[in-house]
Amino acid sequence: MNILIVEDHAELASEIIDYLSQNGYVCKWARTCEDALEEVSVNTFDAMLLDLGLPDGSGFEVLQSVRKTQSNMAVIIITARGELDDRINGLDLGADDYLTKPFALTELVARLYAIIRRMHGFVVNEIDLHGFTLQLQDYKVRYGEHPINLTKKEFDIFQYLVLNKNRVITRLQLTEHIWGDILEVNSDSNFIDVHVRNLRKKLDKHTTLEWFETVRNVGYRINV
User: What pLDDT, in 10s, does the model give residues 135-169?
Assistant: First the structure.
């Protein structure tokens, strides 16, 4: 998952990034409204953690702008301002959740994953698909009772395609989701195809993959 942390306190931002990175998230940091809006203008994020008290304005302004262009991005407001009016305003403007500082990082991850699951139509941490089971938070896949040894990148690709079932996901979308900043990646590289090919080989040992579709010159789709 590709996450944007909008937080002006460097120490807190560093703690969040370290913890999320350990849990398999790709993180970018913005410390001002201007930085946040620039990031979302050039990159696609799965979620944003948004502080309200920023040096050059209010996080509400960022939220309003983001909701005009990225309606599918999860937004969790993280702030020391716990007043009821602020919570209501944030939710009315399109935030998906609200955490008051200080908060436990374990709770942050749990809420983040719960929101992302709901947005993709899942309510549990395990997804069953054509005989395979994905354990979303444990990064494990099995076929029946047989575990399948996937690399982190292979799991991330499989998970993202499953969460976006029945939709064609382009190579660019996979690049943004798995690696984060597309400006730092060679767009001519075939690394996505290599990872997908290796993933399919491991899955194909257990069953045929008629539901795992390659859309020529575009990307991939998992049909459910």
Answer: 887 789 999 999 999 998 899 899 889 988 899 99
Contact 162, 141 (CB under 8 A): no
Same domain flag for 25 and 98: yes
- The number of folded domains in the chain is 2
Question: What pairs with residue 169 in β-bridges?
Answer: 220
Question: What digits encode the pLDDT tens for the residues 203-218?
Answer: 999 998 899 999 988 9
Rounded Cα distance, 109 and 124, in Å:
15
Could you tell me if 52 and 115 lie in one domain? Answer: yes
Under 8 Å between Cβ of 201 and 48:
no
Q: Which domain holds residue 31?
A: 2-119
Phi-psi region of 54 (alpha: psi -120 to 50; beta: other; left: phi over 0): beta
Question: Residue 155 is part of a domain; what is its CATH number?
Answer: 1.10.10.10
The answer for residues whose C-beta is within 8 angstroms of residue 61's C-beta and 6 or more apart is 33
Residues 27, 111 within the same domain: yes
The pTM assigned to this predicted structure is: 0.72
Does one domain contain both 53 and 25?
yes
Distances (CA, A) of 207 to 160, 168, 203: 20, 22, 7
Beta strand spans in 82-211 (E): 97-100, 126-129, 132-135, 140-143, 146-148, 169-170
- Are both 151 and 62 inside the same structural domain? no
